[in-house]
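Key result, reporting period 2: structure in, sequence out.
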């Protein structure tokens, strides 16, 4: 049993295979947080530490004469609310009909059941291998009930949390904040790891020590954003990839999110995560309930690498519902090859060449619909542009299928161009402020996805597209952030709900389409990786990682992404050089190695490559296919941080069954008279013997070691201990951004 209640001490114990989470009801019935961390033995109740008032904090215990002097301000709590004497960042901010802000929740009852919980309108983890605890808390003055939900995935090492707030009174309540979870860490010093960025430079790793203040990681852009990914980590200052206590906090949400981390005057750390409280105000009418997004919590004492492995496995096996992703398909996308300038023959030519080299899927990107010859027009008009595609989509799809390829198509459902039939017919379907000119972004407006009629209209459009055509893949884009957040369909007291209702509308649309067309593989995208989050991954198993396709820039983007999200989810393509975003030239071989740390595909016109390059592409594709299972399902190890290294960056895949491992090394700074490239493997069985099966070098070897140095490595045998502790040394590589892939296999 992973969840136990000890009635004598009023303690809840939640255990995964190597972590424990404990809560206790205090004598008044508040739910206090006791512990989250390395596994405690059975029956080890952790008694409330003596919390003392440090002055100036109000004290409801003293008021009620229950327990000496002790303020809520110094107690660790599971779901604190504002304005009742706890001055730290809070989980709930509730106002009654008189405008009085304040809530205090008392235990009523609880249930424990097998299996996960579901959340109305929101994505949530599934899977039978868990138990769920529901603790019912109540504020009888407000008539507000809160259900605190916890699912414990014992084997996978993840605890999910969410809260449901229900108004049982006969007057409306207003929620100014309703977080998913609060996590109090009463002791310890912590580093915060977050993944910030911008368009075309997403999820840059940043690690800083927490100080005596409040840190906030959040987005008010209507999307989880390129700028601050919702996933954060707290780890002990000494923690490394391989050692140390780490806590992961991953909201399953794609909209405005916020994680506040406060170190208080007692030195305790509180983390609150959920929907961003700014621009949020939820009118909770009598009988209505509000459901918060889920958050995935993970603790490990084995370092950042282990934390990543747990999230990767969890997302693949208990969050991502799609079965369409279970086999890899090498794709080609025409965006960087043609932009808006294509016709049927041009697309066919690209596909034909690609098919001859082993590419399995042709994805037709932006520009195939409405009057769409640039990004200024046509969004919303989801009918085929027959000037470009004579006779419609069917002839092109037939020709692509005739090549033995699958066909995929780009859509951007949530947007509308002012110059479109849709906007002319329904100007009130866009988010705009009454009486003001709309703020444009990429020349487009955001559709009001909080409206039922908009979601229904889009459901019909894309149901038609997918039922009338044999389409195997959808790329779902979203190319601007929100401004003018106002719905023409909601009353004034509900305008603070628009951003969250928007995301609920997006989830409803995706849910309808992915359930109606389960065989279609959906890829998420938002101007690259502007909505790369666990909410999207629940429906779409992969997301275009960044509009930056430069292989060297991708190293740090993919590095940051890998902390929380599995490699099978990382959309990554080989594109043309000089690269369209940076102007840099990177050898084709190295571009391939970097794209293989993801879903692998091409985004260029292969007809423009030289014969030598074409044969390289053919080999690259064959190589990816032979590695794809290992890449998609294996454990991913980071060897170093690309932002810190002055020489080379490396990463490794180890097969789930331990039978083989693939090392990837990219030289980011070629030096004169270079030092040897020495690296240590990770995740191997120290006692087993491994044989080097393949060495693929992309780039030249230094003249002095030219001869078959690389080939000499093939066939050599080492123990796992040698490879991990003593390491290997590569022959020195020379030229612009050379790289290597080394495959080893465990001997029986
Ligand atoms: C942004 C995406 O990230 C690109 O890959 C491409 O699909 C364009 N949008 C098309 O407008």
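The corresponding designed sequence is given below.
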């Amino acid at each position: 049993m992973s969840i136990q209640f000890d009635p004598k001490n009023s303690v809840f114990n939640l255990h995964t295979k190597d972590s424990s989470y404990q809560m206790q009801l205090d004598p008044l019935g508040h739910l206090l947080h006791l512990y989250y961390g390395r596994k405690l033995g059975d029956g080890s109740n952790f008694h409330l530490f003596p919390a003392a008032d440090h002055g100036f904090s109000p004290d409801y215990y003293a008021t009620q004469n229950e327990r000496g002097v002790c303020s809520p301000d110094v107690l660790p709590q599971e779901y604190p609310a504002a304005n009742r004497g706890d001055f730290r960042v809070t989980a709930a901010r509730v106002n009654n009909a008189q405008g009085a802000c304040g809530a205090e929740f008392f235990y009523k009852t609880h249930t424990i059941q097998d299996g996960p919980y579901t959340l109305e309108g929101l994505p949530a983890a599934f899977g039978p291998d868990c138990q769920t605890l529901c603790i019912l808390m109540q504020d009888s003055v407000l008539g507000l009930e809160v259900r605190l939900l916890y699912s414990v995935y014992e084997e996978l090492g993840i605890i999910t949390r969410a809260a449901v707030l229900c108004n049982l009174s006969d007057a409306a309540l207003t929620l100014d904040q309703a977080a998913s979870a609060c996590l109090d860490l009463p002791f310890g010093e912590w580093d915060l790891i977050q993944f910030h960025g911008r368009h075309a430079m997403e999820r840059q790793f940043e690690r800083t020590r927490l100080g005596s203040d409040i840190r906030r990681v959040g987005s008010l852009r209507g999307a989880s954003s390129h700028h601050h990914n919702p996933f954060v980590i707290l780890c002990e200052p000494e923690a490394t990839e391989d050692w140390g206590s780490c806590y992961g906090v991953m909201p399953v949400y794609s909209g405005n999110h916020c994680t506040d981390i406060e170190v208080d005057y007692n030195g305790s750390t509180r983390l609150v995560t959920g929907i961003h409280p700014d621009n949020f105000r939820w009118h909770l009418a009598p009988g209505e309930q509000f459901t918060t997004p889920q958050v995935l919590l993970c603790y490990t004492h084995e370092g950042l690498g282990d934390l990543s492995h747990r999230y990767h496995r969890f997302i693949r096996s208990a969050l991502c519902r799609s079965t369409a992703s279970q086999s890899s398909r090498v794709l080609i996308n025409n965006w960087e090859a043609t932009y808006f300038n294509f016709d049927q023959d041009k697309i066919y030519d690209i596909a034909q060449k690609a098919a001859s080299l082993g590419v399995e899927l042709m994805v037709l990107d932006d520009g195939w619909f409405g009057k769409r010859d640039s990004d200024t027009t046509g969004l919303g008009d989801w009918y085929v542009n027959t000037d470009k595609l004579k006779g419609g989509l069917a002839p092109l799809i037939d020709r692509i299928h005739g090549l033995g390829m699958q066909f995929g198509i780009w859509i951007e459902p949530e947007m509308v161009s002012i110059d479109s039939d849709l906007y002319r017919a329904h100007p009130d379907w866009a988010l705009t402020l009454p009486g003001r000119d709309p703020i444009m972004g990429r020349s487009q407006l955001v559709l009001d996805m909080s409206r039922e009629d908009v979601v229904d209209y889009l459901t019909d459009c894309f149901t038609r597209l997918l039922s009338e055509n044999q389409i195997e893949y959808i790329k779902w884009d979203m190319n601007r952030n929100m401004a003018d957040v106002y719905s023409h369909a909601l009353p004034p007291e509900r305008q603070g709900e628009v951003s969250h209702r928007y995301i609920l509308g997006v989830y409803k649309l995706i849910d309808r389409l992915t359930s109606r067309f389960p065989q279609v593989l959906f890829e998420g995208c938002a101007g690259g990786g502007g909505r790369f989050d666990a909410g999207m991954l629940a429906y779409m198993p992969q997301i275009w990682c960044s509009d930056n396709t430069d292989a060297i820039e991708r190293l740090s983007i993919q590095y940051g992404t890998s902390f929380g999200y599995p490699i099978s989810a990382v959309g990554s393509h080989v594109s043309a050089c000089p690269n369209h975003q940076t102007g840099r030239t990177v050898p084709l071989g190295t571009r391939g190695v970097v794209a293989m740390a993801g879903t692998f595909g091409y985004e260029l016109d292969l007809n423009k490559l030289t014969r030598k390059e074409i044969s390289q592409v053919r080999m690259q594709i064959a190589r990816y296919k032979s590695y794809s299972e290992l890449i998609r399902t294996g454990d991913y190890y980071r060897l170093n941080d690309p932002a810190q290294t002055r020489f080379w960056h490396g990463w490794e895949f180890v097969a789930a069954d331990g039978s083989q491992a693939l090392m990837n090394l990219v030289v980011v700074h070629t030096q004169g008279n270079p030092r040897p490239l020495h690296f240590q493997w990770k995740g191997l069985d120290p006692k087993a013997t491994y044989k080097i099966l393949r060495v693929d070098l992309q780039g030249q070897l230094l003249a002095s070691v030219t001869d078959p140095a690389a080939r000499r490595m093939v066939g050599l045998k080492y123990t796992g201990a040698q490879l991990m502790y003593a390491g290997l040394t590569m022959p020195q590589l020379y030229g612009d951004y050379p790289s290597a892939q080394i495959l080893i296999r465990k001997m029986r």
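The radius of gyration is 27 Å. The chain has three domains: 3-319, 331-428+471-481+514-626, 638-746. This case is discussed further under Risks and Mitigation.
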